[in-house]
Amino acid sequence: MKRILLITLLVCSFVELGASEENIRINEFCIKGREWIELYNPNPFDVSLNGYSIETKEDLFEFTGGTIPADGFYIFEPSGFLDNDGDIIALRDNTNSTIDMVSYGYEGYAPAPPSHKSCAFINEEWNLDLTPTKGEENDVANVSLGSSLMINEIYEKTIEFYNPQEIPINIKDFFITDGDKIDTIDLNSTIYPHDVLVFESTITFTEKDVLYLFDNLGRLIDMIGYYSHDLDESLQRIPDGDPTFGYSWETSNLYDIPESLGSLNDFFIISEVYKNFIELYTPIPREVSFSITLETKREFTLYVDRFLIISNNDRSFFREFRFHSDIVINESFNEITIEFKGMEDHLIYDHETLARIPIKPNSDFKETKPTPKEYNKLYSLDPPLVITEVMYNPKKPQLDKYYEWIEIYNRSDLPYDPENLYFENKKINGDLIPPGEYAVIADSDTHLFDEIDIKNKLKLDGNLSLSNSGDYIAIMEGDIILDDMTYHKNSSKEGFSLEKINGVWRKGRFGGTPGYAIEIEEREYYDTILCIFRNNDELEKEIA
């Protein structure tokens, strides 16, 4: 017999284990392949299962017969009874008292076993058994959380391991699983104390995954999960090797922040230097104690919301960036040293703008544009192309994808080949853009080019998909940003483009002029563009 009960009834009915005289317990279970749950009777006498029940989050099975022999096992083999990602299994006796319970996967600390593997009880804990012992005594390895390496960061399919111990550890034949697939680490690599190693996994992580790490003896040594959290960037432990073991976002104490693979997660470093400021960065908002040495050494303890700006001239800094620096030190930036938690970061500054891209300790400094209190980006210092006009909200919203466009201008003295030109991660295709001319980028199936005479047409491999509520636009040559801009919901209005005039973005006065098509006769020009005027000098664009 099966029936669905609320899990709150299961939890509220929990009583201290041992309330039943027989102390029958859940001993091993398999959730994929063919389901089974093994019960064990540790007593020297047989026990009738009549009136006992097994309950999960969704189902209930009540025994009407069956006997477990003394010091023996009983195998319950349901179908579709156990959740593959996570569940709670409770055993109740014939008085309806809960006498044993196990939570696995994203519901608890017992590992979710992959297909045809089991989770077995050993020394008051649960561990993954690669060779199940159905109907026999468990022989699984012990659980040893925190005794060896730890999962320090997860980014897409890349995993960073950290050694919190004081001895080197070789990772060969360690293995990981998410409850679906087992990935053996076939690297004969040693991780030294308080160092990290990056491993490219074959596992595809999903929302309900818990990642388990086992040593070469099969001992469970670490586990983290992020169920109930929408992953944006990378999962990280801070401080490195934080000994919090969990199965969900709430229990794992993780951070979702920009990746720092191959370096420690807990850092405070120089992220950017410009003629009038030094930018320091920590991956999470917190109180930081550090020292900075320029011409003299100074020590600080203060709260830092990721970025800290130190200027040598706050007035100059404010004029250029329109906000004040956090600290003013009127000393030369020629040589900079930061000390934090025994780690030192040092830079000899001899360029206009130097920035770590991405911001992590093992990244090189690169020349780029200054972007204080923003995540660093790699910009071209002399871009051949610039963005001059954007239509993100055409007259008919239901036709947005057919009439959105971005206009760019070749400011160089040479024809520009768009062979390596990208919008986001999408390739831009088209012919050479002559020097001093405009080109228009549109959707792969745009209607724009069929309806307007545009000389230099560029099509995207995919959809432009410009949001009407605001977006960030960047035109890239490989991984280098040639030009970018950000607009907001009210930057313009329906049917009007955004134009860059004298270096300032503003609402287009005449609807839109894609490709600088002012030679078109004055008339209503489809509902998407509104109106384009002929020979109107006011439309002349000046390139910043």
Describe the protein's architecture and organization:
The longest helix is centred in the middle third of the chain and has 8 residues. By secondary structure, this protein is mainly beta. The chain folds into four domains: 123 residues, Immunoglobulin-like (Sandwich); 108 residues, Immunoglobulin-like, CATH 2.60.40; 99 residues, no CATH class; 155 residues, no CATH class. The chain is 6% helix and 38% strand. It has a ten-stranded mixed sheet, with no helix packed on it. A six-stranded mixed sheet has the order 28-27-24-23-31-32, with no helix packed on it. The chain has a five-stranded antiparallel sheet with strand order 7-2-1-10-11, with no helix packed on it. The protein is built from six helices and 44 strands.
Coarse structural class = mainly beta
Strand neighbour order, sheet with most strands = 40-39-35-36-38-37-34-33-41-42
The count of helical stretches stands at 6
Rounded to an integer in angstroms, the radius of gyration calculated over CA atoms is 31 Å
The N- and C-terminal alpha carbons lie at a distance of 76 Å
**What's the overall average pLDDT, rounded?**
90
Helix content: under 10%
Our count of domains comes out at 4
Overall outline: globular
Note the main sheet.
10 strands, mixed
Number of strands: 44
User: What kind of oligomer do you see?
Assistant: single chain
